[in-house]
Write a sequence for this structure.
């Protein structure tokens, strides 16, 4: 292909010699059921980025939290943890992430720890764990869409106002 024809297909802002994959349409990926994820699935599929589309997904008395994995060969391996600075004030709350994450961030009032084995809200100050599923929530491990989705009752995690939300992911401790 002539360089000028090739350059015409390259997305704006990309070098003319980018690999063909950079200008190909993204693949159609499997999506979780609308029962598990009652929101649109149209969002960037770029690894290593975060997304926030109009705030936290809230529907029917639940807030929804979703993490998608590039591969999910064994759902027992990954773990995800969200931390919530619910008053958007770094001077309040704890700084150490619970669940042995080995990460610190200022202002954490609550954390949501999710693996294929369960979902728990954790108070980082006291260490108190609340089983989300045992308290009316839902955990969906969708191997087809490679997603973990948690529906947390608003009674457990009242979502309102401006929060600072962080997400970390890694390997679960097989003994935990």
């Amino acid at each position: 292909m002539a360089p000028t024809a090739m350059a015409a297909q390259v997305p704006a802002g990309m070098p003319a010699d980018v690999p063909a994959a950079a200008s190909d349409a993204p693949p159609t990926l499997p999506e979780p059921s609308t029962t598990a994820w009652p929101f649109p699935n149209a969002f960037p599929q770029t690894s290593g980025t975060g997304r926030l589309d109009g705030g936290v997904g809230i529907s029917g008395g639940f807030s929804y939290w979703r993490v998608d994995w590039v591969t999910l060969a064994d759902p027992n391996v990954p773990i995800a943890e969200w931390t919530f600075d619910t008053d958007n004030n770094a001077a309040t709350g704890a700084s150490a992430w619970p669940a042995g994450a080995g990460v610190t961030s200022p202002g954490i009032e609550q954390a949501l720890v999710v693996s294929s084995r369960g979902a728990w809200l954790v108070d980082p100050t006291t260490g108190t764990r609340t089983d989300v599923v045992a308290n009316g929530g839902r955990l969906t491990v969708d191997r087809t869409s490679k997603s973990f989705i948690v529906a947390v009752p608003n009674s457990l995690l009242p979502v309102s106002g401006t929060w600072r939300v962080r997400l970390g992911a890694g390997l679960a401790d097989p003994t935990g």
